[in-house]
Amino acid sequence: MTTSQQPLQGRIALVAGATRGAGRAMAVELGRAGATVYATGRTTRTQVSEVGRATETIEETAELIDAAGGTGIAVPTDHLDREQLKSLVARIDRDHGRLDILVNDIWGGDHLLVKQWGKKLWELDLDEGMRMLRLGVETHLNTSYFALPLLVRNPGGLVVEITDGTEEFNRDYRETFFYDLAKAAPLRMARALAEELKEYGGTAVCLTPGFLRSESMLDTAFKVTEETWQDAIAQEPAFAISETPRFIGRAVAALAADPEAARWSGQSLSSVQLAREYGFTDVDGSVPDAFAYITEVVKGGKQAPASDYR
User: Fold this and answer.
1) 251: which DSSP letter?
2) pLDDT digit string (tens) for 220-259?
3) What's the Cα-to-Cα distance from 93 to each of 9, 76, 100, 150, rounded to whole Å?
4) Is the CA virtual torsion 105, 64, 56, 214 positive or negative?
Protein backbone atom coordinates (compact mmCIF):
# COMPACT_ATOMS: atom_id res chain seq x y z
CA MET A 1 0.00 0.00 0.00
CA THR A 2 1.08 3.60 -0.57
CA THR A 3 1.61 6.18 2.16
CA SER A 4 -1.67 7.81 1.18
CA GLN A 5 -3.42 4.48 1.69
CA GLN A 6 -1.68 3.96 5.03
CA PRO A 7 -1.54 7.42 6.60
CA LEU A 8 -0.89 5.97 10.06
CA GLN A 9 2.32 4.18 9.08
CA GLY A 10 4.70 4.40 12.03
CA ARG A 11 2.00 5.37 14.52
CA ILE A 12 1.51 3.35 17.71
CA ALA A 13 -2.02 2.75 18.97
CA LEU A 14 -3.52 1.10 22.02
CA VAL A 15 -7.11 -0.05 21.65
CA ALA A 16 -8.24 -0.96 25.13
CA GLY A 17 -11.11 -3.39 24.83
CA ALA A 18 -10.47 -4.80 21.36
CA THR A 19 -11.87 -8.30 21.74
CA ARG A 20 -15.00 -7.79 19.67
CA GLY A 21 -17.53 -5.27 18.38
CA ALA A 22 -16.50 -1.66 17.97
CA GLY A 23 -13.18 -2.19 19.72
CA ARG A 24 -12.10 -4.92 17.34
CA ALA A 25 -13.24 -2.94 14.30
CA MET A 26 -11.39 0.20 15.41
CA ALA A 27 -8.23 -1.81 16.03
CA VAL A 28 -8.45 -3.41 12.58
CA GLU A 29 -9.16 -0.15 10.76
CA LEU A 30 -6.26 1.59 12.53
CA GLY A 31 -4.13 -1.31 11.34
CA ARG A 32 -5.50 -1.01 7.82
CA ALA A 33 -4.31 2.60 7.90
CA GLY A 34 -0.82 1.34 8.77
CA ALA A 35 -0.65 1.63 12.55
CA THR A 36 0.92 -0.80 14.98
CA VAL A 37 -1.97 -1.67 17.28
CA TYR A 38 -1.85 -3.12 20.76
CA ALA A 39 -5.17 -4.93 21.21
CA THR A 40 -6.18 -5.67 24.79
CA GLY A 41 -8.98 -7.58 26.44
CA ARG A 42 -9.70 -10.40 28.85
CA THR A 43 -10.83 -13.14 26.48
CA THR A 44 -8.03 -15.15 24.89
CA ARG A 45 -7.78 -18.59 23.34
CA THR A 46 -7.10 -20.00 26.81
CA GLN A 47 -9.42 -17.96 29.04
CA VAL A 48 -12.85 -16.37 28.83
CA SER A 49 -13.97 -13.23 30.66
CA GLU A 50 -17.19 -12.83 32.61
CA VAL A 51 -18.85 -11.73 29.34
CA GLY A 52 -18.90 -15.44 28.55
CA ARG A 53 -18.17 -15.31 24.82
CA ALA A 54 -15.34 -17.59 23.75
CA THR A 55 -16.07 -16.94 20.07
CA GLU A 56 -13.96 -13.76 19.89
CA THR A 57 -10.42 -13.40 21.24
CA ILE A 58 -7.74 -10.72 21.25
CA GLU A 59 -5.40 -13.06 19.38
CA GLU A 60 -7.93 -13.19 16.55
CA THR A 61 -8.16 -9.40 16.63
CA ALA A 62 -4.38 -9.14 16.25
CA GLU A 63 -4.49 -11.53 13.30
CA LEU A 64 -7.20 -9.43 11.65
CA ILE A 65 -5.05 -6.32 12.13
CA ASP A 66 -2.14 -8.09 10.43
CA ALA A 67 -4.35 -9.25 7.58
CA ALA A 68 -5.58 -5.68 7.08
CA GLY A 69 -2.02 -4.46 6.59
CA GLY A 70 -1.07 -3.28 10.05
CA THR A 71 0.83 -4.85 12.91
CA GLY A 72 -1.36 -6.39 15.60
CA ILE A 73 -0.09 -7.19 19.09
CA ALA A 74 -2.47 -8.97 21.45
CA VAL A 75 -1.86 -8.33 25.15
CA PRO A 76 -4.22 -10.01 27.65
CA THR A 77 -5.18 -7.22 30.04
CA ASP A 78 -7.73 -6.72 32.78
CA HIS A 79 -8.00 -2.94 32.90
CA LEU A 80 -9.05 -3.10 36.54
CA ASP A 81 -5.65 -4.59 37.36
CA ARG A 82 -3.18 -1.73 37.78
CA GLU A 83 -0.13 -3.97 37.69
CA GLN A 84 -1.20 -5.39 34.34
CA LEU A 85 -1.65 -1.86 33.01
CA LYS A 86 1.78 -0.81 34.24
CA SER A 87 3.29 -3.79 32.44
CA LEU A 88 1.34 -3.06 29.27
CA VAL A 89 2.47 0.57 29.07
CA ALA A 90 6.04 -0.37 30.00
CA ARG A 91 6.04 -2.86 27.12
CA ILE A 92 4.84 -0.25 24.63
CA ASP A 93 7.45 2.18 25.90
CA ARG A 94 10.20 -0.45 25.72
CA ASP A 95 9.24 -1.56 22.21
CA HIS A 96 8.46 1.82 20.65
CA GLY A 97 9.16 4.66 23.06
CA ARG A 98 5.91 6.35 22.14
CA LEU A 99 2.12 6.09 22.08
CA ASP A 100 0.21 8.13 19.53
CA ILE A 101 -3.38 6.91 19.82
CA LEU A 102 -5.31 5.67 22.84
CA VAL A 103 -8.82 4.30 22.34
CA ASN A 104 -10.69 3.59 25.57
CA ASP A 105 -13.41 1.14 24.57
CA ILE A 106 -13.51 -1.11 27.63
CA TRP A 107 -17.00 -2.19 28.62
CA GLY A 108 -18.14 -5.79 29.21
CA GLY A 109 -21.24 -4.91 31.24
CA ASP A 110 -24.06 -6.03 28.96
CA HIS A 111 -24.57 -9.25 30.93
CA LEU A 112 -25.33 -7.09 33.97
CA LEU A 113 -27.51 -4.66 32.04
CA VAL A 114 -29.99 -7.33 30.95
CA LYS A 115 -30.75 -8.07 34.60
CA GLN A 116 -31.71 -4.45 35.30
CA TRP A 117 -34.43 -3.65 32.76
CA GLY A 118 -37.61 -2.22 34.25
CA LYS A 119 -36.17 -1.72 37.74
CA LYS A 120 -35.63 1.44 39.76
CA LEU A 121 -32.28 2.20 41.38
CA TRP A 122 -33.44 0.95 44.78
CA GLU A 123 -34.66 -2.31 43.26
CA LEU A 124 -31.31 -3.16 41.66
CA ASP A 125 -28.51 -5.32 42.97
CA LEU A 126 -26.10 -2.65 44.20
CA ASP A 127 -23.02 -4.82 43.80
CA GLU A 128 -23.92 -5.56 40.18
CA GLY A 129 -24.51 -1.86 39.55
CA MET A 130 -21.17 -0.91 41.01
CA ARG A 131 -19.52 -3.65 38.97
CA MET A 132 -20.99 -2.05 35.86
CA LEU A 133 -19.44 1.28 36.85
CA ARG A 134 -16.09 -0.37 37.48
CA LEU A 135 -16.19 -2.06 34.07
CA GLY A 136 -17.31 1.03 32.16
CA VAL A 137 -15.71 3.89 34.09
CA GLU A 138 -12.88 2.77 36.35
CA THR A 139 -11.26 0.82 33.52
CA HIS A 140 -11.11 3.96 31.37
CA LEU A 141 -9.66 6.00 34.21
CA ASN A 142 -7.02 3.40 35.01
CA THR A 143 -5.95 3.09 31.40
CA SER A 144 -5.64 6.83 30.88
CA TYR A 145 -3.77 7.24 34.16
CA PHE A 146 -1.02 4.84 33.12
CA ALA A 147 -0.98 5.47 29.36
CA LEU A 148 -1.11 9.26 29.16
CA PRO A 149 2.43 9.95 30.44
CA LEU A 150 3.67 8.01 27.41
CA LEU A 151 1.17 9.60 25.02
CA VAL A 152 2.09 13.20 26.01
CA ARG A 153 5.78 12.54 25.43
CA ASN A 154 5.21 13.67 21.83
CA PRO A 155 2.79 16.33 20.57
CA GLY A 156 -0.18 15.25 18.49
CA GLY A 157 -1.44 12.42 20.68
CA LEU A 158 -5.08 11.41 20.35
CA VAL A 159 -7.37 9.98 23.04
CA VAL A 160 -10.73 8.57 21.96
CA GLU A 161 -13.26 7.79 24.67
CA ILE A 162 -15.95 5.43 23.39
CA THR A 163 -19.48 5.56 24.74
CA ASP A 164 -23.05 4.81 23.67
CA GLY A 165 -24.88 7.95 22.59
CA THR A 166 -23.93 11.52 21.77
CA GLU A 167 -24.08 14.21 24.43
CA GLU A 168 -27.33 15.49 22.92
CA PHE A 169 -28.93 12.03 22.66
CA ASN A 170 -27.91 11.14 26.21
CA ARG A 171 -29.76 14.08 27.68
CA ASP A 172 -32.64 11.60 27.78
CA TYR A 173 -32.46 8.87 30.40
CA ARG A 174 -30.59 5.81 29.15
CA GLU A 175 -32.27 3.08 31.16
CA THR A 176 -31.11 1.78 33.55
CA PHE A 177 -29.55 3.98 36.27
CA PHE A 178 -26.07 2.48 36.26
CA TYR A 179 -25.94 2.20 32.48
CA ASP A 180 -26.96 5.85 32.17
CA LEU A 181 -24.17 6.85 34.52
CA ALA A 182 -21.57 4.61 32.88
CA LYS A 183 -22.28 6.00 29.42
CA ALA A 184 -22.37 9.63 30.56
CA ALA A 185 -18.93 9.42 32.19
CA PRO A 186 -16.82 9.11 28.99
CA LEU A 187 -18.37 12.33 27.67
CA ARG A 188 -17.05 14.21 30.70
CA MET A 189 -13.73 12.36 30.61
CA ALA A 190 -13.10 13.52 27.05
CA ARG A 191 -13.95 17.10 27.92
CA ALA A 192 -11.67 17.06 30.96
CA LEU A 193 -8.80 15.35 29.14
CA ALA A 194 -9.07 17.84 26.28
CA GLU A 195 -8.21 20.57 28.77
CA GLU A 196 -5.41 18.60 30.38
CA LEU A 197 -3.81 17.55 27.08
CA LYS A 198 -3.98 20.98 25.47
CA GLU A 199 -0.58 22.18 26.67
CA TYR A 200 1.01 19.00 25.29
CA GLY A 201 -0.53 19.37 21.85
CA GLY A 202 -2.89 16.47 22.51
CA THR A 203 -6.52 15.91 21.55
CA ALA A 204 -9.30 14.08 23.38
CA VAL A 205 -12.77 13.33 22.02
CA CYS A 206 -15.72 11.15 22.88
CA LEU A 207 -16.99 8.99 20.02
CA THR A 208 -20.10 6.83 19.72
CA PRO A 209 -21.43 4.40 17.14
CA GLY A 210 -25.09 4.45 16.26
CA PHE A 211 -27.15 1.24 16.60
CA LEU A 212 -24.22 -1.16 16.51
CA ARG A 213 -24.63 -4.45 14.67
CA SER A 214 -22.15 -6.26 16.92
CA GLU A 215 -21.56 -9.99 17.13
CA SER A 216 -23.65 -10.35 20.28
CA MET A 217 -26.45 -8.20 18.90
CA LEU A 218 -26.61 -10.47 15.86
CA ASP A 219 -26.21 -13.95 17.30
CA THR A 220 -27.55 -13.49 20.84
CA ALA A 221 -30.10 -10.68 20.82
CA PHE A 222 -31.72 -11.41 17.46
CA LYS A 223 -30.43 -14.86 16.39
CA VAL A 224 -29.38 -13.66 12.95
CA THR A 225 -26.11 -13.31 11.04
CA GLU A 226 -24.53 -10.37 9.26
CA GLU A 227 -25.92 -11.82 6.01
CA THR A 228 -29.47 -12.13 7.40
CA TRP A 229 -29.50 -9.12 9.74
CA GLN A 230 -32.53 -7.55 8.11
CA ASP A 231 -34.63 -10.48 9.35
CA ALA A 232 -34.32 -8.92 12.83
CA ILE A 233 -36.19 -5.78 11.81
CA ALA A 234 -39.48 -7.58 12.45
CA GLN A 235 -38.43 -8.00 16.08
CA GLU A 236 -36.93 -4.51 16.43
CA PRO A 237 -37.89 -1.94 13.77
CA ALA A 238 -35.07 0.40 14.80
CA PHE A 239 -32.58 -2.28 13.75
CA ALA A 240 -33.24 -1.08 10.20
CA ILE A 241 -30.86 1.80 10.90
CA SER A 242 -28.12 -0.36 12.42
CA GLU A 243 -24.50 -0.09 11.33
CA THR A 244 -21.60 -2.51 11.20
CA PRO A 245 -18.70 -2.09 13.63
CA ARG A 246 -16.50 -1.15 10.66
CA PHE A 247 -18.37 2.17 10.39
CA ILE A 248 -16.98 3.42 13.71
CA GLY A 249 -13.70 1.70 12.86
CA ARG A 250 -13.42 3.85 9.77
CA ALA A 251 -14.41 6.88 11.86
CA VAL A 252 -11.57 6.50 14.35
CA ALA A 253 -9.03 5.78 11.59
CA ALA A 254 -10.08 8.90 9.68
CA LEU A 255 -9.92 10.99 12.84
CA ALA A 256 -6.46 9.66 13.73
CA ALA A 257 -5.17 10.48 10.24
CA ASP A 258 -6.48 14.06 10.31
CA PRO A 259 -3.60 16.50 10.94
CA GLU A 260 -6.19 18.98 12.17
CA ALA A 261 -7.99 16.59 14.55
CA ALA A 262 -7.42 19.05 17.41
CA ARG A 263 -10.38 21.07 16.13
CA TRP A 264 -12.62 18.34 17.56
CA SER A 265 -10.99 18.30 21.00
CA GLY A 266 -13.41 18.01 23.91
CA GLN A 267 -16.37 17.30 21.65
CA SER A 268 -18.96 14.53 21.50
CA LEU A 269 -18.76 12.90 18.05
CA SER A 270 -20.60 10.12 16.25
CA SER A 271 -19.68 7.73 13.48
CA VAL A 272 -22.19 9.34 11.12
CA GLN A 273 -20.92 12.85 11.88
CA LEU A 274 -17.35 11.85 11.01
CA ALA A 275 -18.53 9.96 7.93
CA ARG A 276 -20.02 13.17 6.59
CA GLU A 277 -16.86 15.08 7.45
CA TYR A 278 -14.32 12.62 6.05
CA GLY A 279 -16.34 11.01 3.25
CA PHE A 280 -16.35 7.33 4.24
CA THR A 281 -19.35 4.97 4.33
CA ASP A 282 -20.42 1.76 6.00
CA VAL A 283 -19.54 -1.46 4.17
CA ASP A 284 -22.76 -1.35 2.12
CA GLY A 285 -22.04 2.18 0.91
CA SER A 286 -24.63 3.80 3.17
CA VAL A 287 -24.22 6.46 5.87
CA PRO A 288 -26.67 5.40 8.60
CA ASP A 289 -27.83 8.16 10.96
CA ALA A 290 -29.21 6.15 13.86
CA PHE A 291 -29.65 9.05 16.26
CA ALA A 292 -31.74 11.12 13.86
CA TYR A 293 -33.87 8.10 12.95
CA ILE A 294 -34.48 7.10 16.57
CA THR A 295 -35.20 10.68 17.64
CA GLU A 296 -37.47 11.65 14.76
CA VAL A 297 -39.13 8.37 13.76
CA VAL A 298 -38.99 5.94 16.68
CA LYS A 299 -39.54 8.53 19.43
CA GLY A 300 -41.00 11.42 17.46
CA GLY A 301 -43.53 9.51 15.39
CA LYS A 302 -42.43 10.85 12.01
CA GLN A 303 -43.55 8.66 9.14
CA ALA A 304 -40.38 7.93 7.22
CA PRO A 305 -38.52 4.78 6.20
CA ALA A 306 -35.08 3.97 7.56
CA SER A 307 -33.74 4.27 4.02
CA ASP A 308 -34.25 8.04 4.30
CA TYR A 309 -31.65 8.02 7.09
CA ARG A 310 -29.04 5.91 5.32
Assistant:
1) H
2) 999 999 999 999 999 999 999 999 999 999 999 999 999 9
3) 18, 17, 11, 7
4) positive
